[in-house]
Amino acid sequence: MELQIKYEFDPIFETLSLLYGSAQKMDKEKIVEQINAFGVDGEKFYKKYYKVSERYVRCFKKHMVRKEHFDFFFRDGEENFLLLLTVLLVENREWFQDFTHVTDVEIRSLAAWILQDEGDELGPLERKIQLRFQEEREVIRFLSELAAKDSLKWHLMEFLEQPVHWMSILIELVTANLPAFEQAISDMEKTLEPFMSAYKKHEDQQFLEIADACVPGAVVYPSFAAGSSQIICYTQAYQGIFVQYLVKKGMSLDEKKERLIARMKALSDKSKLDILCQLKRSSKYNLELAESMNLSPSTMSHHMNVLFACEFVGVEKKDGRVYYVLKENAVREFMDSIGELLL
Known about the structure:
Elements: E1 4-5, H1 11-23, H2 28-36, H3 42-63, H4 70-74, H5 79-90, H6 104-116, H7 136-144, H8 150-161, H9 163-187, H10 189-201, H11 205-214, E2 219-223, E3 230-232, E4 236-240, H12 253-268, H13 270-281, E5 284-285, H14 286-293, H15 297-309, E6 313-318, E7 321-326, H16 328-342
Parallel strand pairs: 1-2, 2-4
Antiparallel strand pairs: 3-4, 5-7, 6-7
Helix pairs in contact: 1-3, 1-5, 1-9, 2-3, 3-9, 7-8, 12-16
């Protein structure tokens, strides 16, 4: 199945992300540090693109409806909790039309599947009821074995005790704020136009390759609210409209130098270099690679995002899993670029 590329925003995803963004204060220092890892000037990137994102959030907040229990969903900057809620909603859009038939057991089962999923196996979000949390101690046992921060576990505990209750409140909150999202897009139309025009012209083959390997036939949306992120769910994928500016791929001498510097910075980090050395020996799936490197999944994800951006790593489908592979041609091109510039 071919990917379905959209050039419009997903209202559910955008509204959720805007609600989260409206409750957070941007950590400039952390953002700049993350952008620097791509070989891009984090300070300049922040001023040029994150300032636009901040205006978008401010436009949204002018029209936002803040309902009871808002803080339960968006407090403390808990990104992993937001990701769980996002996947549950974008993968179950029918809940916005009819939520009456959904049970606590179904939501707990879906949540457990998402929380335990290491991103290795292909296929849609399972609907089978695999875990039946009929008693509180079963939820406690599940969470005690989950690799997560204690703050997240306590948040999940409260959510999993009454998932239908909490999801119904969240659905009402998102529905009430869909007009605020639409108004924010309207307010930002002139500012957004050149970014969307560039996004339509820019086809990120690397990201599309990964999305197609992980989720064949996925619907791929751009995102303004998550402008520098790339998120792949089970049938949906999202790419921020600013990601295209993280790694320059032009043909001018200055742009070639920037590209070369970004790759050299990636290889100057021991963990990233070790990952490439591991992949030189054999392709590996996510959990296998994380365990061999003794790294947490989140740290591994950060390293892989940089290596993907530099095109040193690709993916392949094999035995029902997505494997990371070393892109030897990219390594040779990198070495040739050094020779072309210096010899």
